[in-house]
Amino acid sequence: MRAGGIRSEKKIKIHRRILGTFTALLFVSFLITGVFANMALELVEAVETYDMALAQHIYGRANLVLFALIGVIFFIAVIATYFLSNSITRPIEKLDKFALNIGRGDFTPNNFVFREQELEDLNSALNESVRRLGIYDNEQKTFFQNASHELRTPLMSIKCHAEGIVFDVMDPKQAGETILQETDKLSDLVTDLLYIAKIDNITTAYTREPVNLTELIRGCASRQQALAEKNNLRIAFDFGEEEINLTCVQDLISRAIDNMLSNAIRYAKAEIVLSCHKYAGLIELSVKDDGEGIDAGTLPHVFERFYKGKGGHTGIGLSIVKSIAEQHSGKVRAENAQSGGARFVMTLPC
Question: Domain 142-200 belongs to what topology?
Fold first, then answer.
């Protein structure tokens, strides 16, 4: 038998129980009808022959049989209802308790096994929800722990230099410059934290719309052109002749491009190349720099939150890129280009 047939067979077990119960009651009903029909015929014959003694005897026997059958039916109904209700309510009570535990923050999967496929499917769905909620809960705890540590570092530096100014043990101008730098760093960090919290919010709904990716990439490059020129860098483009459109959340994709470009500006020596092409139903968007590339120890961790490699900033920018790619059912990878430098590639479905 095929797997689909086995699944269908399992899914009607509970229906068979209900149907079996009502079939038994229906059979008893037909039996009662037959008995009373037979007695009715005997009663009619007795009346027609004016045999009143026989008629009274049949009448009394009918009452006796009626009460006996009512008792049998009541007994069958009670037993059937008890077993049927238990077979339905017991697993539902288990799932109800499991759902209450989820509401209390207990994300431990259960090992229940149900004979009814409908309940087994519900149990599997709850276990999958628990698994995802557990992952989300752990990620949030780690996120806040790391965020607290990253926020504490610039705050302590600001406090230290402010005290140096107050107690006249530091040059006010030099300390002020450090405070401004740390404040800018703190501001960028808070912005990134708020952004990644918004992306990861499981209740956030985004509006998607068709976007011309090449125009979007040029816009991102234009916003960071001044910073690139300050670092003596040239931004080049590698686009095909075909216009590439993507239905996406424009703000998120724009932020992902900005983050990859900012990262490239930090490490490039002379040139950054932004490319966008379509291959076999997939859009490949990449940012390549001509820097030293990514060392082998750092490469597997570049998209992890708060991981800062050599010359890293906050350790959040590239993790935002990864989250945005996943929000669009895509992927992002980092690699060292054959011609030298690092290359970050985001692949998105059309």
Answer: Helix Hairpins (1.10.287)
